[in-house]
Amino acid sequence: MHIILASASPRRRELLSQIGLEYEVAPSTVKEEMEGALPAEIVQGLAVQKAEDVFRKMKEAGAKDFLVIGADTVVSLEGAVMGKPADVEDACRMLDSLQGRTHQVYTGVALLGEKEGGAAFRRIFHEKTDVTMYPMTKEEIAAYVETKEPMDKAGAYGIQGRCAAHIEKIDGDYNNVVGLPAGRLYQELKKCGI
Predict the structure, then answer these.
(1) How crowded is the C-beta side of 131, counted as CA atoms within 13 Å?
(2) Sign of dihedral through CA atoms 143, 91, 131, 103?
(3) What percent of the chain shows pLDDT beyond 90?
(4) Choosing from 53, 65, 72, 87, which is the catalytic residue?
(5) Are the C-beta atoms of 93 and 77 separated by less than 8 Å?
(6) pLDDT for 53-73, tens place per residue?
């Protein structure tokens, strides 16, 4: 089956390669709209939007026997959802609110596909991981933001990058915090017969 990742994220590509999947990248171009009140609903909705956009394009191109993987990640602190920072000030604000506390990272995944013979399938799920950060000084936050690493990441940090120095502990799937719950994804693909 032909697998398409509806994301340009290098981290998601690395995780798919790590679990041995062969795939191509076709990033979604849909304007994302947050729907739902809860973080799990929001990430699942965004993942579906991305997957549906690429699925439709594949169908229009006449593709057969394919699967589209859509994914989205947000950070939630006491129910307030954080996406990617808008600018440097926003990144500093996000990190300041997270430091010294436990927050949740949610990744929603949508699997939309069509098997040989035209049978369509759809699986949607999410994973949640608790992350506790050590306290950070204003200087540490500013120095980290200056690296530009936080600017394209939910919650303004990358656990796999320099922010690892400020992570006290995690409870749940580490890869989920990176941007894709690879183990759960693999299990869901098996349920789909892939």
Answers:
(1) 31
(2) positive
(3) 86
(4) 72
(5) no
(6) 999 999 999 888 999 999 999
Structure tokens at 7: 């994301």
Distances (CA, A) of 86 to 41, 83, 151: 22, 9, 8
Q: Is 130 a catalytic residue?
A: no
pLDDT(141) > 90: yes
Tokens of 154: 């939910």
Residue 99 CB partners (closer than 8 Å, separation 6+) = 133, 134, 135, 136, 141, 166
DSSP string, 149-177: GGGGSGGG--TTTGGGGGEEEEES-HHHH
Strand partners for 126: 108
pTM above 0.90, yes or no: yes
